[in-house]
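task queued by scheduler; priority normal; single chain, no ligands, no partner chains; default sampling; output format set to C-alpha cells
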Amino acid sequence: ETTGLSRPFDALAQAFATPLKMVRAPAAIVDRDEAGAKVATLELEVMEGEGPAHQHPGDMFSTVINDTFKTAMSTAFAAAYGLAAQRAGSLAQRPCHGRWRIVDPTTGLPFQSVGGPSAGGAALYGWYSALSGTVCDPGIIVIAEIQFEDAMVALKPTSGVKEKVTEVARSAVGRIDRIVKTRILVRFDSYRLLIGAVEEEIVFPVIW
C-alpha cells in the first residue's frame, strides 16, 4: 500500500526521471524582463507516464512563467500527442507526458521570465517530432499560437510578429532558414514579405 509519505517522493522521482526522448526547437518569445523579442531554445522532453506537461523542476526557481505561457505549453503537448497517436509506432501509443525548459541558445542558461502564448506553435512542432519519430529541423521556427478544440489543431496569428521576425533575422542568421507564421511556411531570405503575407490554411502536419 502506498503511504502518504511515499507519494511525494514518487512524484519527485518522476519529475527528475530520464526522458524517453528530447528535442530542441527554436522559439520567438517576449522577454518580460527586457520587454523585447528574443529567440530562445525550447528543450522539449517526452516523459514516461500520464500527466500534464510541466516545467523542468530544475528551472522552477530560475524561470518565472505566467499562466498564459503555461497553458500554451500544456495545450501544445496535448495537441502533439493527439496528432502523433495517428502514427503507428509513435511514442503517443503509450502513456506519456511533456516536460520543458526554455533557454538562451547561445549560453544554454534558462530565461529568467517569459510569458504569452506565442511559443505554443514551436512547442507543438517540437513535441510532435519527438512523439512521432520525425525530424525536428532546427532551421524551422514557428511563430504562432495554437488552437486545439474537438481534436482539431490550427495555428493562430500572434502578437508582435514583426518584432519577432526582425529578431530572428538579426540574431539567428545561419541557424534558422524557414519561418512558420500563422499558416504560412516561407524561406528565411524572404522574411520581409512575411509581415504582409496573405494567410493560407495548411492542415497539420502537412507543413512538416
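post-processing summary
- The first strand starts at residue 21 and ends at 31.
- The chain is about 25% helix and 30% strand.
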